[in-house]
Design a protein that fits this description.
mainly beta; globular; eight-stranded antiparallel barrel; 1 helix
Length: 121
């Protein structure tokens, strides 16, 4: 009986240690970031703008700009982490950006310097 009890005690210990939560090494930048704004000038209709960054775990991503719901520009990019910053290199020589991730009013924010560019969806 002692052997059976010892076996179950050992088996349950192994089961609990092997079922521990795996550490997820997903970077906070991975996901979709959205900036939406609108402008209305006196006597004119409202213009809606949307910029979207999609950061993928394979260090690639997509960027797009839309005006009034219609796609105006899109490109791809690669990204890398450098200390607390993220360097984004756009395809077709569109340039580079350096972002950080912040927090404002419970939202995770994509920052460029002191400016909030987008909110994580």
């Amino acid at each position: 009986m002692k052997k059976l009890f010892l076996f179950f005690a050992l088996a349950s210990t192994v089961a609990f240690t092997s079922c521990s939560k795996d550490e997820d090494d997903t970077d906070v930048i991975i996901g979709t970031w959205l900036m939406e704004s609108s402008t209305t000038f006196d006597g004119q209709s409202t213009t809606n703008y949307e910029d979207k960054w999609v950061f993928k775990s394979d260090l690639s991503g997509d960027y797009s700009e839309s005006y009034n719901g219609e796609l105006d520009f899109e490109t791809t990019f690669t990204w890398m982490k450098s200390e607390d910053s993220y360097i984004v290199i756009y395809a077709d020589d569109e340039g580079t950006d350096t972002f950080t991730v912040g927090e404002l009013l419970g939202n995770t924010t994509l920052m460029e310097g002191e400016n909030i560019l987008a909110i994580k969806e």
